[in-house]
Amino acid sequence: MEKIYPVKEAETFSLGDYPTSGGSELSKDELEIHLETLGKKLSKIQDVMYAHGRYGVLVVIQGMDTSGKDGLIREVFKHFNPRGTVVHSFKTPSAIELRHDYLWRHYLALPERGKFSVFNRSHYENVLITRVNPSFLLNENLPYVLNPEDADETFWSGRMKQIRHFEKHIHTNGTLVFKFFLHISKDEQKKRLLARLNDKDKHWKFAESDLLARKQWDAYQDCYARAIAATSTKEAPWFIIPADSKTEARCMVAQILLEELKKCEDIKEPQVSAENLSRFDEFRAILKKS
Fold first, then answer.
1. If you ran DSSP here, which 8-state letter would residue 122 be given?
2. In a domain, 141, yes or no
3. Structural domain of residue 32, as residue ranges?
4. Please, what is the average pLDDT of the chain?
């Protein structure tokens, strides 16, 4: 598989310049075997991180409708111990959430030290779906946004800055942040939407709103490019994952997480004190007699 590098900080780019296919020479079966291996290696790191208890890990998964977010989360993290992993799927904000600032519910979902939080969609929806549909901002009841037109370029630049500060703050306080954009082509999305309509077992996945979002494809691609360029930092990098092949995309995300977490050389299992270790024979004897 082609190596995926993080988007450089403050880089201006178009998603059209990035491939939606990774071009792996491995077969689907070989990729699935590789993913199993990667998943098991990641789970071992998770166990050590849980015991170490100094870092939390936030994994952000974003992408257009049908890009494979749910399946990727299921397959990449299936070997993880559930006690150390929480998946959050962020839907339309509730009435209570709308009475707070837009980052509030995301702060509440951040991982404890030693645990992983996976965001299926995330705080970035507030500069994506809301930017494409600025009338949604009126639900937030903001003091300076009385009409959608009040959300000008300065407003959106301000939100990007707030997100950068949010991610830098949590990184400084022990949360490792990794952000993945699952990049699919418009043609591949059409195939996946048609599959939902043609397969009765997938009917429940289809919503008429998918068609509206598809009509807004170019606007979403532009907003994603702006958000990624403005918020890919050393503390919280974005990785653009070719996602026309679901299995290949899953392998890429797992590989990146494994490589990046291995760089944290200070993450080690807690050491048993010499005093405690010297008494292990005593403890064994007690257990054998019990």
1. -
2. yes
3. 15-289
4. 94
pTM above threshold 0.70: yes
CATH of residue 123: 3.40.50.300
**257 assigned to some structural domain:** yes
Give the containing element (helix H, strand E) for 119. strand 116-120
| C-alpha dihedral sign at 85, 81, 35, 40 | positive
Supply angle C-alpha 261, 63, 239, rounded to 5.
35
Cβ contacts of 190 within 8 Å, gap of 6 or more: 214
Mapped to the 3 state alphabet, what secondary structure does 191-240 carry? HHHHHHHHCHHHHHHCCHHHHHHHHCHHHHHHHHHHHHHHHCCCCCCEEE
Three-class secondary structure of residue 12 per DSSP: coil
HSE-up of 65 (CA within 13 Å, CB side)?
Answer: 21
pLDDT tens for 2-60 read 788 899 876 677 899 999 998 888 899 999 999 999 999 999 999 999 999 999 999 99
Say how many domains are in the chain: 1
Pairing of strands 175-183, 116-120: unpaired
